[in-house]
Amino acid sequence: MSPCRACRSIVAALVALAALTAPARAVAEEVLVFAAASLETALELAAEEFEADTGHEVTASYAGSSVLARQIQAGAPADLFLSANQEWMDVLEAAGLVAAETRVDLLGNSLVLIGRSGGGAPVVISPGFDLAERLEGGALAMALVDAVPAGIYGKAALRKFGLWEQVAGSVAQAVNVRAALALVSSGAAPLGIVYASDAMADDRVQVIARFPGDSHAPIVYPAAATVTADDAALDFLSFLQGDAARRIFVEQGFTLPGE
């Protein structure tokens, strides 16, 4: 064997040995998250940090919790489900579609009445508040009041103060809370009921009033992995419970469990 061929053989052997002894790289995975529409802004920021840390890719589908739950029931290949209320998570858990041991109460929120920025001074909602007059003949934007959590909470709060009957005929129901936000932001509706986190996500709206927490059921966002989720999805769910993600959620107007 010539010296050159011998050298090439040695180099090839060393490269092969290095390949065998080098630590295996983690394979990047895609995590598909079905998340309540109100989570979009904060979850995108959290996903960016997770992707930078792990190399995994997070893809999220946002809609009303009811729509997402029904899609999962129909076989949609979600890895994680983040709901805006307990009831839709209960439905999937009862059907054996989410892993009960992974379920966690991830976040909380509050409910607000919004208008366009510069639309007037804040008010206090009480049984004597004339919400119909404040609408000035326009619509009150809300998420679907019998299906989407934000709409359900909003309808309950209005009933608590005896205001539902005066505005029920003026409610413009949107498919999710971000769609209700868009109606106010665009000027299509003078007022709307959304989460505090939604109001923070759009500088074209302002908070007109805040609904007391006892005017509706507690707003809780449960999260869980589906029964088909892989390790990357579980890692993302764990990340969402950590300090980095919690900081993002709080900055975007959410509350943490127990607060």
TrEMBL record:
InterPro entries linked: ModA (IPR005950), ModA/WtpA (IPR050682)
Annotated Pfam families: SBP_bac_11
GO molecular function term, any single one: molybdate ion binding
SUPFAM superfamilies given in the database record: Periplasmic binding protein-like II (SSF53850)
Signal peptide residue numbers: 1-28
Compartment annotation: Cell membrane
GO cellular component: outer membrane-bounded periplasmic space; plasma membrane
Residues engaged in binding molybdate: S38, S65, A150, V177, Y195
Domain of life: Bacteria
Any single biological process term in GO: molybdate ion transport
Entry keyword set: Cell membrane, Membrane, Metal-binding, Molybdenum, Signal, Transport, Tungsten
Description of how the protein assembles with itself and partners: The complex is composed of two ATP-binding proteins (ModC), two transmembrane proteins (ModB) and a solute-binding protein (ModA).
Function recorded in the entry: Involved in the transport of molybdenum into the cell. Part of the binding-protein-dependent transport system ModABCD.
Recorded family membership: Belongs to the bacterial solute-binding protein ModA family.
Name of the featured protein: Molybdate-binding protein ModA
Species assigned in the record: Ruegeria marisrubri
